[in-house]
Amino acid sequence: MLTYRVLSRLLSYPGAKTVAAVGEMRAVLEGEGLVSSSDRKALEPLLADLESKELLDLQERYVLLFDRSRSLSLHLFEHVHGESRDRGQAMVNLGELYAEHGLEVSDRELPDYLPLFLEFLSLLPPRDAAELLAEPAHVVDALHRRLLKRESCYAGVFGTLLSLAAGKADDEALTALLQEPDTDPDDREALDRAWEETAVTFGPDPHAGCPQTRDLLARMAPPPARS
């Protein structure tokens, strides 16, 4: 479904090609009918900004939001594992799954990057994509709430993802995420402290990895071949 590619593009670093494709993105969102009219309305402020604002301003805003603030990182497993070794293995497994479905990932890309994950979902049937999107819903929901708090037009993308997901966020996992510091990107000292904190893990055994991650990879695994 091209809708997931549009959402992936909207969450990627804005470039000239993205700005030039706004009209096409609107057409896909309306034509495929996967996104409700209310969610399309919520996406419009971002689409309008891409059309009207200077590219350098758009890029600066993106970096300020998603690259400087750990609490808004677009790397899914970072919110689950921090920088622990569990995250590395989870990314290896996810990268292998992408390859099995024909999605090539360059050495410069991390598999848990949300725009890349959405690109992967675009290769799947809508129902399968919706079920997989529900697995990291607690991360998506936390990001959505933080962006709403900042009155950011990017909140519309995350609200749309929550609508597309076939299931709600796990309350316990969401609560744990929302208890993490949500640092102001302009507070450099607080940002430094946030990046120096111990890696975040969830679940009863901190050495066993995160149940949500295991479930995500298990659901994404291809079915066994029939004899």
Automatic annotation (TrEMBL):
Gene name of the record: narJ
- Protein name as it appears in the record: Nitrate reductase molybdenum cofactor assembly chaperone
InterPro entries in alphabetical order = DMSO/NO3_reduct_chaperone, NO3_reductase_chaperone_NarJ, TorD-like_sf
Kindly indicate whether the keyword tRNA processing belongs to this entry. Answer: no
Q: Membrane-spanning regions, if any?
A: none
Keywords attached to this entry:
Nitrate assimilation
Show the SUPFAM superfamilies listed in the entry: TorD-like (SSF89155)
Q: Which residues form a coiled coil?
A: none
Q: Has keyword Isomerase? A: no
